[in-house]
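During the first year of the project, the team set up a workflow for recording each protein of interest as an amino acid sequence followed immediately by a discrete structure-token representation. This format lets reviewers and collaborators read both layers of information side by side without switching files. As required by the reporting guidelines, we include two representative entries from the current panel. The first entry is reproduced here exactly as it appears in our internal archive.
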Amino acid sequence: MTTVSVIDEDASNAAANQHFSLLVNGVREYAIYMLDPQGRILTWNAGGQRLKGYPPAEIIGENFSRFFTQDDRDRGVPGRILESARKHGEHRDAGWRVRKDGSRFWADVLLTAIYDQEGTFKGFAKVTRDETEKHEMQERLRASEERFRLLVGGLKEHALYMLDPGGHLQSWNEGAQRIKQYHESEVIGRNFSMFFTPDDRASNKPQRELDIAAKLGFFEEEGWRLRKDGTRFWASVVVTALLGADGQLKGFAKVTRDETKRHQANIDLQQALDRTIEAEGLLRMQTRELENRVAERTGLLSAQGDTLRIMNAELEQFAYVASHDLQEPLRMITMHLDLLQLWNRGNLDERSGESIALALAGTLRMRTLIDSLLAYSRLDHIPKSFDPVDAGRAAGEAVENIGKIIAEREAEVTIGRLPQLPIEYGQLVQVMQNLIANGIKYNRSEIPTVEVSARREGAQWIISVQDNGIGIPAEYRTQLFQPFRRLHDLEEFAGSGVGLAIVKKIIERHGGQVGVVDADVGACFTFTLQAV
């Protein structure tokens, strides 16, 4: 007996359609639905409801254009999409779409034209996926890349560019064009060794830089580089190795800054320092010569009546030379040091700034020495006066003149009752000022004290200036009043070494004497003048 199985084709197709419908309706990540030829919605799946917020009853029969933004509808975008899909069989699109609640999402869309077995156009199948998160990530990446491009491209003070592992240029910014004068089209693909001097290229220096950067992660140096026109500039360079996720070398980032002005400023500074040292040496040599002449002439005073006049004449001549020959180069050195500080404000490193400060301090010491020397030499040209003046008032004015020094050291100055003295008033103020200031300066006490007093012995007044300072050993007391004779280093106690010599000369011009007497604490300077 033969059994014949008959397959119901219609039933089979119905089952297949049912299975397909279940499959489509169960997809939740995609909105999958059918459109008629005019774009009206014929079907709606769970993914469509989840993605766009409409249940089937609200959306079936509506035109799919309601998912587009108002701007897209005004521009006729939905109709053009349908026309493109029908003409080409499908249309892929990405753009903003609108949910039921009015919120937007970025949609990735595929629209496919549908034909039946006879080739009759029936409508469209539309698949939509929400790609908002991916789109926003891409936008953030694009914006970040754009900001980085604008940042690098806009840097004008730095040449910033990329090299491949072999040193060939891969990028070029505006700062590189400004510093090195090449346009981007002239350098991309060429080796960066083109910026080095012939000697550096001959010694393979460019490749050594890359080798060191690849080994250590970076390379940093300063040196001469070449512009397009062949001129040199002093470059500060940093080369950084770029490694991929796999640790392999992908290339290099190179940053170059033109430091020619700073480099030249350092050269000018060194030259100025050399001139300062030379000038200081000249001043010391002339000072020693003066000391030798003063000592020589002093030894002959007892035998030669005219010796003092000869010595004074030579001293005046030296003072003229010091004023004319030393003041001018000293002013020039000071001016150039000040200009170096002004031109390079903010660019000098700490060492260069300290060097300029030391040089300026040196010129200040030289100016002080010269001024003190001139003051000493000019005393003979100041008229002597033996009219009585108030010594107490002169001492008070001296204290006012050095008020800053007294305040800084928190010193205490006591002025006793002082007599009328036969001396030019201004010179008496200078004598008092020099002696009181010395008592404060050569003093290591927490509170320096100076006491000025007077006593009469016969036809003379003896004025004493007593301090609580470091004191003066007896063997050095005869040397104190010689010009430029110092008992201490400048680093320990500043000064020109002329102050006491000026005191001695003023008092002796008015018929008195100056000396140092024993004291239990500190030093006691005295000077005598005739009583009136």
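The second entry, processed by the same pipeline in the following quarter, appears below.
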Amino acid sequence: MANKSQVFKCKSKRIISVGEEEISSEIFMSIKFCLLDTITNLNGINYSKAFLEEIADNPQKYLSLPLMAEFAKLSKGKTNNLTHAYDKDKGTFSSQMIGSFISFETQPNADDETITELVGEARVPKRFTDIIEVLQELFDTGNLTLSYEMSIGEYKQVGQIKYVDVSEFNYLFAMACVTSPAVLSAHSLTLVAQIMEGENIIEGGEKENMQRNKETFTAEMMFENSKINLAELDICQVKTKLFNQLRENMDDNYWMYDSQDIGVDYVILKNYSTADLVKVEFKVENNDVTIIDTYDVDKTYVKKVIPNEGGEDPMTIAELNAQIVTMTAEAVVLNATIETNKTELAEVNEKLVAKDVEIASINTNLTTVSETLLAKTAEVEAFAPIKAAHETMLAEKATEKLVADKVALKEKFSKVLSAEVIIEMAEAFENLDESKINAKIVELAMATANATKVPNAKKEVTLASRIVDNVKMSGAEPGSLKEKYSI
């Protein structure tokens, strides 16, 4: 989707050539730059190969792309603080055009062919004699670098990376001569400074007031942005002496500050990296400048105070020193504790190693047991068919015995009981219930005995003559058969 257009500014990677080796002309100087590549820069912006090719393939669109610079600074040889001259309040650039691009092409990177680079050739009119001399000097010293200015209205963001591809909302609209980037590495030359919603958001690349070098940082550079001068004094001498004292008092940090304001007896320094303000109070006596005090201030130049832990009263230097001593002692104790913990940790690690060895041994034993168990299981499975056949045989034998026992039981009692009674007692014979069969025999015997006592009663033979072989007649005690049936 299309977004509100943003302006991206980025350092060019390097200068490829400058001069008139290929085209001799009294009219212009020809310079070839490597402008863009497809590597994700340190601000998380990645330009696609298609986007670079779109620029190279549309000369009618990009022909005469302006090469911009801060003309006034460049013509005076002031190359230590060249910027895009962007006014974040107005959202406008105040740099001037010093030349234009006549061609663009893409090429593979010399070290990695998977990387595509956009190369552009620019021409600068030789009528700007001072500009030509400065550009030549910058090129000779390896300090001629560019920063591209691009309008981006559509991109795809994945995580922290913005992917810029071909779109009617995305286009390159200028290149600008700027000072060397703050980070002097190969990658730093591709950093992007991004402008969003009228606010100059610097993301690690070219930035106003950031182009400096400790070795070449001068008093003039420190006080270049001062709002007022000391009209009644020799300001140059004051600045020089003040600069020398600051360089001595601030050790290696002096070159990180710019003068934001200067008065009769003070100067306000601004840290170009953190934007913190420092007030330096001084006095001028005779031919000397003496620094009286130096302290942090807020935006209204009011001295900042350091609150104590309760946040109520400012702490004195003595209190701060006492706190430092206490914290140092605590740090010593903490370091001792750390060493003790390291020793205990080493012992624990040794025990863990021993446990690891023990666990490895147990695992080996478990593996052996598992292998043995698997072998036994295989043997059991091998005997399964034999076991099943044996169980089948036992079942068949049991069935055969049951059948034989039933036949034998019928044969045994067939001499005593009639066929009708045997049929009647079929369930008892099926269940081999001899007690029930014996009870039936006794019942039949008793019925036969009673029948003999009835006169003229018809006798029916239901019991064979050998009943006494199976029935035992006990004595005449109470409850016996003799008593019950009066035998």
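For the second entry, the following points were noted during internal review. The chain has a mean pLDDT of 76. Residues 317-414 form the longest helix (98 residues). Both points are flagged for discussion at the upcoming steering committee meeting.
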